[in-house]
Design brief:
about 325 residues, single chain, f41 fragment of flagellin, N-terminal domain, mainly alpha, two-stranded antiparallel sheet, disordered N terminus, two-stranded antiparallel ribbon, Flagellin, rod-shaped
Length: about 325
Amino acid sequence: MIKGVPNLLTYTRMNQATTEMRARMQDASLEAVTGKHADIPAATGAKIGEANLIKKGLNDIDSRIGLYGLVSARVETMVTSLGNVRGAFDDIGARALTMVDSGDSTGMRTIASEAEVALESVFSMLNVSQGNRTLFSGDAAQTAPLSSAQDLLADVEAIIMSSSDPAVVNAALDTYFNDPAGGFQTNIYQGGANNASSLVLGNGTRVDYTVKADDQAIKDTIRGLAVLAANKSLPMAQPGTDYRTVVTAGIDSLEVGRAGILDMEARLGVTLGAIEKSVDNDSHERTVLSAVYQTLVGRDQYEAATELKQLETQLETSYLLTSRLSALNLTNFIR
């Protein structure tokens, strides 16, 4: 009698079983590491739609939290830069007021030099960037917001020297800094006309964290420093009332700018607080959703590891038997 066919079928079936066990071992290995079923549709059955919605919710939260981190870093850098801007001119305004009231031309020249250095520093701090994005340029995020401090200073010196009438000089400075067609807006500010994109928090609140280098408080600060710095080129041997009027207006502008920058810092601080609260809320929501998702797709890791060990033993046995069968020749199968 021919008895080889059943033996040959057994050999073929064992090869197939070995292949299936290897595939299952791969799944069990993945489940032991991730704690999730390798075949989620099979594990969830009719709840696959619910599982997918929860997964999408988790991905959305992860995207928001990543964006929160990016915006928080930008806002923190902006707050630091604004604080450094205030620190750059520190008590220059108060000391300048003392000097001009006392008629101390030598002291005013010293103040002028300090104001020029501070002006350069302010320009540098406002041109700060993070990655490839400038922070004080509004929607022109690839462009440095301010051009040259020396160009601005030359313009202000020319305005101050153009008239001995303080009313005329201050009116010209108003036009230069505040008129949309003035020199500051057309030659110095290089940023965008609109705000940068706002941030939408998890609760739907839209947060605008834009501060631009042409905001009024910053222009007031730059104007005050430029007026003080321009004193290095003014005839100050015998400063008179007209001279003091122009310088005092510059000092006033500087202090108004200081107050405005403090307000900007405070608003950005509120923004940081709102972002931090949203991070906490989203993190809590993520914890809850993760727990629900795990109940749908989760696999006990200890159980998966136990199954993996059993499969390894079975696979070793299968390899041994298959090896023995493969060593049989045709004579073995048909005797």
